[in-house]
Design goal:
The chain has helices spanning 42-52, 74-77, 80-87, 158-167, 187-199; strands at 2-6, 18-22, 33-35, 66-68, 90-93, 101-103, 108-112, 115-121, 130-134, 139-143, 155-157, 174-177, 202-204. The chain has 205 residues and is α/β, with parallel strands linked by helices. The protein has a single domain (2-204), classed as Ribonuclease Z/Hydroxyacylglutathione hydrolase-like (Metallo-beta-lactamase, Chain A, 4-Layer Sandwich), CATH 3.60.15.
Length: 205
Amino acid sequence: MRIVPLHRDDPTDYSCAVYWVLGENNAPTDCNTLIDTGSTDPANLHFFLQKMAQQPKGIGKKAVEQVLLTHGHFDHSGGLPGIDEQFEPRTYSWFPQGRNHQTIRDGMALKVGDQQATLLHTPGHSEDSICIFLPETGTLFSGDTLYRITDHQGSYSQAYVDTLERLSHLAIRTIFPGHGHPITQDPIGYIRTCLGNVRHSVIQD
């Protein structure tokens, strides 16, 4: 599996970390996948296309065969119309998005690059939040579900507690978050620390 981060360094554009996932050997059975699409800024699409031109994608294969949206907030889904126009991919999301929408079910299996992924409904940040887990390599694409929680001053939903509890039991080796750098050092410890701080905060039903 090859994971190509696509993030344009522009402080005037609030956008997420976009990940382009490809198979290691460009096999016909691989599925070239874009995880999130960034903001509405058209400069992002131009940047994506430049980066995609630098990578082998497989003979006769589109650079983006499917899009997985971790949730519908504008900084993660705003670029979808441009991606639709360019590639006409299948778009998997919890709520309808895109021209060729496919509804996600919790626990759904899907090929991502050259690996089998499990799509997990992980509400908390938003009702439609999902994470993408690839057990073969212990890779988790977490969108905005995981962010560093360092104190007990917040207020969180019970759904978010349940989400963190669920993620803490996965064999995760690397987290690719929606903002910031990949988490490679003790990702389970990172999740459990967040969970402990959330549990000691205000929990709303």
